[in-house]
Amino acid sequence: MTSHRRNLVVLLIFLTTSPLLTSHFFARAASTSPPITRPRIIYINDLDDPDDPDDEDVDDPPIVKATARTTFQQKPQFCPYNPCSEDQESCPKLAAETECLCPGISGADVAPNAPRVDALVPVSEGEHRGKVQIKWCAPSSVVTGYRVVIEGREREAQEFVASSRKGYVGSLEAGTKVCVEALNKAGSSSPSKFSCQRYSPEKSDHTLLAGIIGGGVALLIIVIIGAVILWKYKLCQKAKGDSADGLGNPSYSTEGTL
What we know:
This protein is an alpha+beta fold. It is 33% helix and 17% strand.
């Protein structure tokens, strides 16, 4: 039993002290173990050393300075465009020239929206005497022209340029329906309750009469107010005159009693 232990101890000493076996063992272990990747650490000195000659051959990296830019959000400015005014530039053209904002406008490849009829007014003087003037407002669409259609006289429809907002038609009977259509290359607008109106001369006469009456009432009120102010002014002047007369002629008694 003692001899077996002794032989084992001798074998271990032999294995640990033999250089050939040891190198073979570690070489085999290194060949079978996976390679180990170690990170490369690069040290950067922020401060240059004037005494270090190696710094002369190294170019300093460019310094990028952060700049702050403040932007101000301006209030959107809408184009000075009135859809009911005549002979004015289109809103898209104004937007291209002044960078203003236009309301939403449908494109030229889409049929325009219907315009809005503003008024049907009989003309009583001038070169268009006896005719009816029709006024309208442009839709929010690309328009190349307008067409005025009279009920019962569709073949006599009149066309106007895109900048027009009024036109003249012949005499109309009361109740005649008049419609305005917007045109572009995609087609024409569909009639609506806003783009059509029935002619009512009584309504126009009543409107004119109401305006005349209103102006007369306003003028009468102004005259009454002026008369009241003048009357009060005269009363004040008379009161001042009476007061001055009373102070300028005092009555004193010069007789004494003994």
